[in-house]
Amino acid sequence: MVAVIGIGKSMRRAFFYNENKVQSEDASLLKVSNMPSEKCAECPDLRLKMLLKLTSTRPDVKTNTVHISLNFSPEERLTDDKMSQIATDYMEKIGFEKQPYLVYRHKDSGHEHMHIVSTNITYDGERISLHNIGSQRSEPARKEIETKYRLVRAEDQKKQPFELKPADFGKVQYGRLPTKRAISAVLIQVLDQYKYTSIAELNAVLSLYNVRVDTGEEGSRLLAHDGLQYRILDQYGQTVGKPVKASSFYNQATLKNLQKRFIKNNITRQLHKKTLAAAVLFTLKSKRPSSLKELSDLLKRDDIRLIPRIGKEGVIFGITYIDMKNKTVFNGRDLGKEFAAKALLERLHLPQNDNGNTIIVGSKMHEKTVFPVGNNVARSWESYLQLDQKSMMELLSSYEYAASAVPNVWKKKKRKKRK
């Protein structure tokens, strides 16, 4: 069993997150505990009023909402009664047995789990301390419940039951689930797990799951008010369906909150920067890939994703690297000059446009779309990725690759000056 404790300042947000799932038949209300009226079990509005009235008795306490998620192994099939008993025992062991709380059984994932909504404000107006509640109270309670009900221990689970993977079966497919629900499932995992420092880096990760966040076009109202909206992508990378506002998600994936994450993530991701750079450099030197696709396939073996950033005209203007093991995301230039788009494409001897600083190719998402390159030459993204060789005459006549073709052993060594 895995217990996740969320502490917040909005009782309404936690309450409606679960009640909305009940209305969409993605969850069911299992238990209403310690409410003063029996009618609360039948009336959602009354349940919310009771919780809000209790939290209003202590306006000085800002953090007054406790939202707990108890997750079980996919191998376990628990009845409603057993799940309700587990919730009762858990709340008693963490010191919330006398608090009003609601238990919801969720049905929107591949593993059994439930959510518990409560408050740390007592009926006497006292405040229950939430300091170190996870390590000092929740962890011992979890282990005791696992033993009592013979549940699969969290330590014995090889993989987290709710972990998403960037594979075809893990990608969001438009129409299979409600748009907001599908995007929310991805955001719950991505926002907290990955270390990104910009919208572009976040989009690189979200693209693995067919999701994108938009800041709005130049001059749009969305951009002017620092708004964000999340959308689903189809198999060609084009947006489908209606956008969902960032503020409507439970985890508040707004630009203001993301900017706070950017600062924090920039510090924590530095621990894995050298490891990622060394892995990419080793692949370039040892395998000597001759195309971007070949390099991308080689990096996948080391759980590294290479995501090119492509403009509207098919111009590659950046490369993003994602370390799937350490959940870190780096723009190529932040990783090092040799990992930036221009330097990497020059190293792979790939064609450039007339300016010599970018490459124009077919859109990544439309493999059959063709764009002009240089002197009326046309290439698609698919043919560009498969461009594994160039003629010897083209290599010899290309000035920009002349310096890189000279071996180090032939270069003259600088004479040391006498002191």
What does it look like?
The chain has 419 residues and is an alpha+beta fold. Helices cover 34% and strands 19% of the residues. The chain has helices at residues 11-23, 44-56, 80-93, 133-148, 179-193, 199-206, 221-224, 255-268, 273-287, 292-300, 332-335, 341-347, 381-385, 392-397; strands spanning 2-8, 27-33, 65-71, 101-106, 113-119, 211-214, 229-233, 239-245, 304-310, 315-323, 328-331, 359-360, 370-373, 377-380. The strands form 4 sheets. Strands 1-3-5-4-2 form a 5-stranded antiparallel β-sheet, sandwiched between helices. Strands 9, 10, 11 and 12 form a 4-stranded antiparallel β-sheet that branches. A 3-stranded antiparallel β-sheet has the order 6-7-8.
Largest sheet: 5 strands, antiparallel
Output the strand order for the largest sheet. Answer: 1-3-5-4-2
What fraction strand? 15-25%
Given the helix and strand composition, which structural class is it?
alpha+beta
Q: Radius of gyration in whole Å, from Cα?
A: 27 Å
Give helix % range. 25-40%
Order of helices and strands: EHEHEHEEHHHEHEEHHHEEEHHEEEHH
Separate helix tally: 14
List low-confidence stretches.
158-169, 356-407
Identify the overall geometry.
elongated
Distance between the termini: 70 Å
Which whole number gives the mean pLDDT? 80
Give the tally of β-strands.
14
Oligomer: single chain
